[in-house]
Write a structure and sequence with these properties.
The complex is a heterodimer of chains A (about 80) and B (about 200). Chain A has about 80 residues and is mostly helical. Helix content of chain A is about 60%, strand content about 0%. Chain A has two helices and no strands. The relative contact order of chain A is 0.13. Helix content of chain B is about 55%, strand content about 0%. The chains are: A mainly alpha (about 80), B mainly alpha (about 200).
Amino acid sequence: MSEREMLLNKLSTYQFAALDLQLYLNTHPGDKETIEKMNRFDKKADELVKQYEEKYGPLTKDATEGNNWSWIKAPWPWESEADC
Amino acid sequence: MFVYEKKLQYPVKIKNTNPKLAKIIITQYGGPDGELGASLRYLSQRFTMPLPELKGTLTDIGTEELNHLEMIGAIVYQLTKNLTMEQIKAEGFEDYFVDHTTGIYPQSAGGVPYTAASMQSKGDPITDLHENMAAEQKARTTYDNILRFCDDYDVKDVIRFLREREVVHYQRFGENLRLLTDKLDEKNYYAFNPSFDKKCFKKK
């Protein structure tokens, strides 16, 4: 696994943990403890997104910066680095 | 509104091609209990849902199913990458190949193109939530059946993740159904449609 993939997996883990709790919160909106936990995972995911985008390029079009339209840069999510 | 994130919900990285397995797994792309149907079902039903919890759950699960559709597409793509004519013939991929080459097309394992006839948006939240709980179980069984044909860990790992999500979604839909019936006149839930007959809710 490349360093890029390791960072992507780490951020996906936090993102997924937050998403799963958000789904739970839709039916348990008053659960304060879970909201706090979700916020913690969300914050951690945001930090990792920033770290990832600085190193490897944008995850959303909004995050695309600079003179070079890096949004279209490979690899796309269904590809591996070896394809590029 | 939807915004694309250039990543998968769970990583798909398959080293060995397997066109035979791809033809089985594609059923979760465009088959009767697949992710496309799941997403369309929930994202369509949500418009007439009566409670905020229900609208939120259907929006979020319907969106998550789009992640899963993308993951299934990635699996099929990677299982059919750089195939040789010999592999195509040896693994019985000719019938798919002649229509789509190695393009990803929404169809069932039996080759039936995606059809909305396999889903319903009934406009009655009790009916729709029961449909959704059944849909999650049908998808879970399909993933269990797919696992019977998988001996590659790279594929199995992703299919297991997707299977588990069906179980979680089933649980959430069950909670939605309870939240709804708790707010209804309990004399007879089936004497009204909570999306259409507004008077069926308990007075506050």
